[in-house]
């Protein structure tokens, strides 16, 4: 009775207090979930890590591999762990795609396409993860006192190789890449790239519209072999979604009373998607600003410095048996488990601080890239492009400064627009 009376009293409050109370209640619910009930906490609480290690050992035993085959058991452990993670994450991914994204008109996938894509991602991940992990564990085993240097060098080479081959060999497994057709847009992109000495070799359009109506653009490649990739949803003249709208124009609106979600989808799909050519050039001016200002190189250097530090601290801590005992490993100290415990759990406070620092740095880089596009004479077009992209992605333009400072790698829209309008950039 007391609970219902409290609820009645809450509903009698002014609207602003009800909204504040609802937000506060939701925040505490999320906090309690993430602190006590999230997947990682449940795995720790119920001894999931040592159980999975013992289970992988039993599977290895069935195949004739004893405890001395630690790397083999580690690979089975990784396979089981990633399979568990994919299985438990699948319902949430389905809900996000076919309920939330579908409600707001973003989802373009069928269930069959989604499942095929998920299976393909899992297989590709295993094809990369298992060989790389086995080599890393082997290097740590035979590396002696300075194994952390060799391990760091190995991960550096792997990361550079993956960055090099991803767009050419991995991404095409999931999306169709086609050269941007000859025309005014391609000519203007080439002229802009040449004006800042960007070594552009090819411009691709990726068919992102078969998966989602979200848009993006990026460049990749090392040294003199740079390539630009544009999502078809970014290009107003190229987007499949816009052609669909034109084909469906003249159709009468639905009136079958299926609710707000259909109305929202109808509104979203009745507007044109993407940016005009001038706005696309402004967005690319921003992206190329990241290259010209050395942001990509700086991020790589920071990442590798952090990686080296983590491997060094791992070398210092790996011999501490109490760390393994704290997580249920009393009789053995597997290297893979040591990596998991130290990198994911022991380093978690450091990772939070580092993540915040990188977020602050990323926001600074975004302002600098906007300023670079402004110097190229693209301020007006970038201004309108940012507004269009925010509308297309149903972004909310107003953000709490403290929340956005901690969570957002990009500055809120209004801050970016204000900086583009100002006469100087801090």
UniProtKB/TrEMBL annotation:
Pfam families documented for this protein: Peptidase_M48, Peptidase_M48_N
Q: Give an example GO molecular function.
A: peptidase activity
Where would you say this protein principally sits, based on its record?
endoplasmic reticulum
Q: Known EC number(s)?
A: 3.4.24.84
Ranges annotated as spanning the membrane = 75-95, 122-140, 146-167, 308-330, 336-361
Supply the alphabetized keyword list.
Endoplasmic reticulum, Hydrolase, Membrane, Metal-binding, Metalloprotease, Protease, Transmembrane, Transmembrane helix, Zinc
Reactions it catalyzes: Hydrolyzes the peptide bond -P2-(S-farnesyl or geranylgeranyl)C-P1'-P2'-P3'-COOH where P1' and P2' are amino acids with aliphatic side chains and P3' is any C-terminal residue
The UniProt note on the cofactor reads as follows: Binds 1 zinc ion per subunit.
Domain spans labelled CAAX prenyl protease 1 N-terminal:
38-176
Q: What does this protein do?
A: Proteolytically removes the C-terminal three residues of farnesylated proteins.
Name of this chain's protein: CAAX prenyl protease
């Amino acid at each position: 009775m007391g609970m219902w009376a409290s609820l009645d009293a809450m509903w009698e409050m002014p609207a602003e207090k009800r909204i504040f109370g609802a937000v506060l209640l939701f925040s505490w619910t999320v906090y309690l979930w993430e602190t006590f009930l999230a997947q990682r906490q449940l795995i720790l609480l119920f001894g999931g890590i040592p159980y999975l290690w013992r289970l992988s050992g039993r599977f290895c035993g069935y195949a004739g591999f004893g405890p001395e085959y630690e790397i083999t058991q580690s690979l089975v452990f990784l396979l089981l762990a990633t399979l568990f993670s994919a299985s438990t994450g699948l319902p949430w991914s389905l809900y996000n795609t076919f309920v939330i994204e579908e409600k707001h008109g973003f989802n373009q996938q069928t269930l069959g396409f989604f499942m095929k894509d998920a299976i393909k991602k899992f297989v590709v991940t295993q094809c990369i993860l298992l060989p790389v992990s086995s080599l890393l564990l082997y290097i740590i085993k035979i590396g002696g006192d300075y194994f952390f240097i060799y391990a760091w060098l190995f991960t550096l080479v792997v990361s550079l190789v993956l960055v090099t081959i991803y767009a050419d060999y991995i991404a095409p497994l999931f999306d169709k890449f086609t050269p941007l057709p000859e025309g005014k847009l391609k000519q203007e992109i080439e002229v802009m790239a040449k004006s800042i000495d960007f070594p552009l070799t090819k411009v691709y359009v990726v068919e992102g519209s078969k998966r989602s109506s979200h848009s993006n653009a990026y460049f990749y490649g090392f040294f003199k072999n740079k390539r630009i990739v544009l999502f078809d949803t970014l290009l107003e003249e190229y987007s499949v979604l816009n052609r669909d709208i034109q084909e469906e124009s003249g159709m009468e609106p639905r009136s079958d009373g299926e609710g707000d979600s259909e109305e929202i989808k109808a509104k979203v799909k009745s507007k044109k998607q993407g940016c005009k050519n001038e706005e696309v050039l402004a967005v690319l001016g921003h992206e190329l600003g990241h290259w010209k200002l050395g942001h990509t190189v700086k991020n790589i250097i920071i990442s590798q410095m952090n990686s080296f530090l983590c491997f060094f601290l791992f070398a210092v801590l790996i011999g501490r048996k109490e760390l393994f005992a704290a997580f249920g490993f009393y009789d053995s100290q597997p290297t893979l488990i040591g990596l998991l415990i130290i990198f994911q759990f022991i380093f978690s406070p450091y990772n939070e601080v580092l993540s915040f620092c990188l977020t602050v740095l990323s926001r600074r880089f975004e302002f600098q890239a906007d300023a670079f596009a402004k110097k190229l004479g693209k301020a007006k077009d970038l201004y309108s492009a940012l507004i269009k992209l925010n509308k297309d992605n149903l972004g909310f333009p107003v953000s709490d400064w403290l929340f956005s400072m901690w969570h957002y790698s990009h500055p809120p829209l209004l801050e970016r627009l204000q900086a583009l309008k100002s006469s100087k950039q801090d």
